[in-house]
Structures are given as C-alpha cells and as structure tokens.
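Title: Prediction job returns without error message
Component: structure pipeline
Severity: low
Priority: P3
Assignee: unassigned

Description:
Job completed but the reporter wants confirmation the result is attached to the right record. Sequence as submitted:
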Amino acid sequence: MLKWDMLDIFVKVANERMTLGMEWTGQESFRSQPLRDWRVGDHVAGRTRSAGALTFATIAGAGHMAPYDKPAESLELVKRWLAGEEL
C-alpha cells in the first residue's frame, strides 16, 4: 500500500504519477481503475485506486503528518490494510 496525504500536494502528485508508470504485471489493471472514494463512517476519508497487491490511497484534509492531522482516518487505513480489507 502506498499512502499520501491530499494536502501534501508535491509528494502526492509525484507518487501518483510514479504508481501509474510502474512496470509490473498488474500495471494495466491498476491504470484502468478510476480513483474512488473510501469512507470512514458516513464521510469520505480520501481517494483510492487498487489492483492486485498495489493500493494507492490518499487521506482527505491531511498534510505530511497524516496521523496528527487525521488520526481516525489514518488508523482506519492501517487497520484495513493489515486486515487485508478493501478501502
């Protein structure tokens, strides 16, 4: 899983481009997936794209220190990833 914070614009943009350009067996599947919302409760926690073992995720309203800016969303992201659940 690769996670970037939506307010950390320079890192997010560069790393989203990197994930889209990586050469791997699931590249076409990953690139064809649209970004979609992921939620914590009733609110949108960020955006995500997944294919195979690769997940790109953002946390809405978080800067470089996402666990400080958005602790509930950061924890939920890690919990779901460790449990092998979809965002």
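Comment from assignee: result matches the submitted record. The radius of gyration is 12 Å.
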